[in-house]
C-alpha cells in the first residue's frame, strides 16, 4: 500500500474490498478479537494474505464447513504446529513466486503456552512470517481457563479465587529472539495500531504483534465496554504500548498517564476481578515492576539509576 492509500485507511475514508471477518462468524458480541481482525484488514488493504489459525475462538469463528466467515484463505493447525505450519506456507509461497504474506492468528493459549516451542523455533530462524497474538488473557474457547497471560487476581474457571501468578512477559521473550519487529497494539489507539499492523505485514523476517482483546464473556464485562477497557488499560499503564526493533530498540509509542482513576475503573468494569476482591493497588504493584523494566529497556533509566550500583556502569546500554 502506498502512503496516500495508507493515509486513507487511517482516516477510514476508503472502500474496503472485503471484510476479513464476515457476517455469519460465531464470535460473541463485543469480542475484542473481532475488532482486531477488522482493524487488521483496514491496515493491510488488499495485500494478499494466508492465515494460519491454531485452535482458539478465531478458529471456531469461521463457522461450519463448507462455509467460512473469513475473507482470506486459511489453514487450521494444531496449537503446537502453528508457527511451523506458517513457516512451510511461507516457504512454498516464496518458491512459487507468490506474494502472499503468511499470518498466524493465535490466542494467548496458543502463543504464551501451548504454541511456544514452535513459535520460539520459527522466531529463532527468523522465518518470514507474522505471528499475531490476540490476548484475551484466558482459554476463551474452552470455557475461560487461566493461561500464563491471565493477570494476577483474575478469577477464571480453574482459578475461581483468583490467579496467583503474574502475567508472563511475552514481548520480552519475543524480543529476546532479536526478531526484526515486535510490538504491542492498542485497539483504542487506531492510528498507532494501523501503523504497526501495516509495518508488520510489510517487514521481512519474523514479526510479532500482541493485541489486547477484551473478552466480555470471560472478563464478565459489558460488550459495549470493550474499547473503553483497552483505553483504560493503556492510560493506567497496565498495558504498555511499545515497539521493539531488532530485539533491543524499545520505544513507548503511546504514553500512559498512570491514572489511578483509570486503573480503578478498569477493575470495576470486570466481574473477573470483583469476584476475588483484587484491588487497583494490587495490580499497581505488578505494573511498577513492568515499567521499571521497560524504562531500562527504552534507555530512559540506566541500570545504574535503577540499581544504584557502580558495577553496572561498565555494561553497554
Ligand atoms: C493440545 C490441545 N490442548 C487443548 C486443546 C483444547 N483447546 C481448544 S481451544 C483452547 C483454548 C485456546 O485458548 P487461546 O489460545 O487463548 O484462544 P481463545 O480460545 O482464548 O480464543 C483449548 C485449551 C486443544 N485443541 N489442543
Ligand atoms: S469467548 Fe471471548 S474471545 Fe471468544 S468469541 Fe467470545 S468474546 Fe471473543
Ligand atoms: Mg485466549
Largest sheet: 8 strands, mixed
Give me the secondary-structure category. alpha/beta
What is the level 1 CATH name? Alpha Beta
CATH homologous superfamily label: Thiamin diphosphate (ThDP)-binding fold, Pyr/PP domains
Runs in which pLDDT lies below 50 for 5 or more consecutive residues are 312-317
Distance from N terminus to C terminus (CA atoms, Å) equals 36 Å
- Count of extended strands: 8
Specify the CATH architecture.
3-Layer(aba) Sandwich
Supply the number of structural domains. 1
Computed Rg: 19 Å
CATH topology: Rossmann fold
Instruction: Calculate the mean pLDDT score and round it.
Output: 92
DSSP helical segment count: 14
Bound molecules: thiamine diphosphate, iron/sulfur cluster, magnesium ion
Provide key terms for this protein.
single chain, about 325 residues, alpha/beta, Rossmann fold, 8-stranded mixed beta sheet, 14 helices, binds thiamine diphosphate, binds iron/sulfur cluster
Describe the structure.
The longest helix is centred in the last third of the chain and has 19 residues, at 280-298. The chain has helices at residues 3-11, 32-44, 57-60, 82-95, 108-113, 116-124, 170-175, 190-202, 216-219, 226-236, 260-268, 271-274, 280-298, 303-307; strands spanning 49-54, 74-77, 101-107, 130-135, 181-185, 207-212, 241-245, 249-254. The protein has an eight-stranded mixed β-sheet, sandwiched between helices. The protein has one domain: Thiamin diphosphate (ThDP)-binding fold, Pyr/PP domains (Rossmann fold). The chain contains 14 helices and eight strands. By secondary structure, it is of the alpha/beta class. The protein starts with a helix and ends in a 10-residue tail after the last helix. Helix 3 links the parallel strand 1 and strand 2 (74-77). Helices cover 40% and strands 14% of the residues. Helix 2 packs across helix 8, helix 4 packs parallel to helix 6 and helix 10 runs antiparallel to helix 11. The structure holds thiamine diphosphate, iron/sulfur cluster (SF4) and magnesium ion. Iron/sulfur cluster is lined by residues 27-28, 31, 33, 57, 136, 140-141, 215-218.
Amino acid at each position: 500500500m502506498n502512503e496516500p492509500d495508507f493515509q486513507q485507511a487511517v482516516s477510514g475514508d476508503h472502500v474496503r474490498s472485503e471484510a476479513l471477518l464476515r457476517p455469519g462468524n460465531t464470535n460473541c458480541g463485543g469480542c475484542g478479537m473481532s475488532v482486531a481482525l477488522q482493524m487488521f484488514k483496514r491496515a493491510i488493504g488488499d495485500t494478499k494474505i494466508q492465515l494460519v489459525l491454531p485452535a482458539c475462538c478465531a478458529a471456531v469463528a469461521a463457522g461450519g464447513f463448507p462455509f467460512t466467515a473469513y475473507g482470506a484463505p486459511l489453514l487450521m493447525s494444531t496449537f503446537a504446529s502453528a508457527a511451523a505450519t506458517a513457516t512451510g506456507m511461507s516457504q512454498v509461497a516464496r518458491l512459487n513466486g507468490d506474494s502472499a504474506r503468511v499470518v498466524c492468528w493465535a490466542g494467548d493459549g496458543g502463543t504464551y503456552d501451548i504454541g511456544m516451542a514452535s513459535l520460539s523455533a520459527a522466531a529463532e530462524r527468523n522465518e518470514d512470517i507474522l505471528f499475531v497474538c490476540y490476548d484475551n488473557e484466558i482459554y476463551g474457547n474452552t470455557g475461560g481457563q487461566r493461561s500464563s497471560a491471565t493477570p494476577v487476581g483474575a478469577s477464571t474457571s480453574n482459578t475461581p479465587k483468583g490467579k496467583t501468578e503474574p502475567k508472563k512477559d511475552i514481548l520480552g521473550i519475543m524480543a529476546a529472539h532479536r526478531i526484526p519487529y515486535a510490538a504491542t497494539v492498542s485497539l483504542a489507539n487506531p492510528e498507532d495500531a494501523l501503523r504497526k499492523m501495516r509495518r508488520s505485514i510489510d517487514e521481512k523476517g519474523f514479526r510479532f504483534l500482541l493485541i489486547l482483546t477484551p473478552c466480555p464473556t470471560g472478563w464478565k464485562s459489558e460488550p459495549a465496554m470493550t474499547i473503553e477497557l483497552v483505553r483504560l488499560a493503556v492510560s493506567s499503564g497496565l498495558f504498555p504500548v511499545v515497539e521493539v526493533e531488532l530485539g533491543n530498540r524499545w520505544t513507548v509509542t503511546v504514553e500512559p498517564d498512570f491514572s489511578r482513576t483509570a486503573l480503578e475503573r478498569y477493575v470495576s468494569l470486570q466481574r473477573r476481578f470483583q469476584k476475588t476482591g483484587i484491588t487497583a493497588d494490587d495490580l499497581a504493584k505488578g505494573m511498577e515492576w513492568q515499567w521499571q523494566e521497560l524504562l531500562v529497556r527504552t534507555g530512559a533509566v540506566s541500570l545504574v539509576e535503577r540499581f544504584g550500583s557502580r558495577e553496572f556502569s561498565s555494561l553497554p546500554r
